[in-house]
Amino acid sequence: MTHPPSRKVALITGASAGIGAVYADRLAARGYDLILVARRADRLQALCDRLAKAHGIQAEPIVADLGQADDLARVEAILSTNDNLHVLVNNAGIARLGKVSQRSADDALSQIALNITALTRLTQAVVPRFIARNAGLIVNIGSVLGIHSLPISAVYSGTKAFVLHYSTGLQQELAGTQVKVQVVLPASTATELWDLSGVPLAALNKDGLMTAEHMVDAALAGLDQGETVTFPSVADAGLWDRYEAARSQLFAATQVGTPAPRYQVL
User: Fold this and answer.
1) Helix (H, G, I), strand (E, B), or coil: what is residue 238?
2) Helix crossing, 18-29 with 212-224: angle to 10°?
3) pLDDT of 227 above 90
4) Distance, CA of 3 to CA of 12 (rounded, Å)
5) Which of 8, 23, 32, 156 is an active site residue?
6) Residue 174 belongs to what domain range?
7) Distances (CA, A) of 146 to 99, 231, 238
8) What's the rounded Cα separation, in Å, for the pair 164 and 148?
9) Which of 16, 151, 153, 180 could form a disulfide with 157 if both were Cys (CB 3.0 to 4.6 A apart)?
10) In the chain, how many domains are there?
C-alpha cells in the first residue's frame, strides 16, 4: 500500500490488541495513516478495516513476529525506506514472570529479544532518517517495573530498565533537534500480556488496574504537554523530578578517584 505524500504515517508494533490497538485508534483520529505490526493476521486486518472506515485513513497490516530475525528485518526495511514515516510506537513486548530458578533460559531470552533487541533495532532504523528530516517522534513503551524489581520480575524489570535508560540517553543525543522521544511507564494495565505472563489478569488488584484506553490517553496528554518521561498513573509529577535529582546526585558522588572512606583499610 502506498500512502499519499502529504499524509504522515505512524508505525505501531504489537498493534492487534490492547495498548497498541488504542494507539492505532488515537493516532488515526489525529489524521495519521497507519502501518500496524502484529502476529495475528485476522485481528490485525479487522482493526485496519475498522480504523480506515472510522477515520478515513489508510491502514496497512504487517504480519510479523518481532522476536524472529527475518520478520524483524522486514519491519526494519519499512522503517528505513518509508519517506512518510513520522511516528514509531515501540509497543510490542512480553512478560514471563516467575523466579529465575523456576523459568527457562528461553523465557528470559524471548523477553530480551522483543523488549530490548527489537525495540533497539527498530529505533535505530528510523533515527538517521528522522535526524536528516529534523522531525519525527519515537514512543517507547516501558513499565514502572523499569524502576522497581519484584522476586518474579528480574528479567522483565531488567528489560524495561533498558527501555527507560536507552530512551533518556537518546533524548539527550537528540537535544537541539526536532526529533522527539517519549518513554511511557505504565503500571498495571488491563491487557492480554498478563494472562500470558504467568500472573493472570484476574489475580491483580482491580483498584490498581488501568484500562488501555486511559493509559494511552494519559500518555498522549503527556506528550502534548511536552513530557519526555510519562508515568500515566502518577499524580505528583514532582516525584519523578526528585527521583532524577537523587539519581543525578548519586552519580555525581561516584566521580571520585579513591575508595569511599568506609572501604579503606585502617
Assistant:
1) helix
2) 50
3) yes
4) 16
5) 156
6) 9-237
7) 17, 11, 18
8) 12
9) 153
10) 1
Of the residues 8, 23, 32, 160, which is catalytic? 160
Using one digit for the tens of pLDDT, what is the confidence trace for 68-122? Answer: 999 999 999 999 999 999 999 999 999 888 899 999 999 999 999 999 999 999 9
> pLDDT digit string (tens) for 13-38?
999 999 999 999 999 999 999 999 99
Q: Is residue 263 part of a domain?
A: no
Which of these, 228, 96, 211, 114, lies nearest to 162 by C-alpha position?
114
Q: Which residues pair with 189 in a beta bridge?
A: 210
Give residue 188's pLDDT. Answer: 75
For residue 138, the cross-strand partners are 88, 181
Query: Is residue 5 predicted with pLDDT exceeding 60?
Result: no
CA distance 98 to 154: 8
Cβ neighbourhood burial of 6 (10 Å; 0-12, 13-18, 19+): exposed
Edge-to-edge strand ranges of the sheet holding 33-38: 59-63, 33-38, 9-13, 85-90, 136-141, 179-184, 229-230
Residue 156 among the catalytic residues = yes
| Mean pLDDT of the region 31-48 | 96
Q: Is residue 136 one of the residues assigned to a domain?
A: yes
Give the model confidence (pLDDT) of 237-266 as tens digits: 999 999 999 999 999 999 999 999 999 877
Among candidate residues 227, 154, 233, the one with its CA nearest the CA of residue 189: 233
How many other CB atoms sit within 10 Å of the CB of residue 261? 7
131 occurs within a structural domain? yes
Give the burial class of 105: count Cβ atoms within 10 A of its Cβ; 0-12 exposed, 13-18 middle, 19 or more buried: exposed
Asked if residues 24 and 59 have their Cβ atoms less than 8 Å apart, the reply is: yes
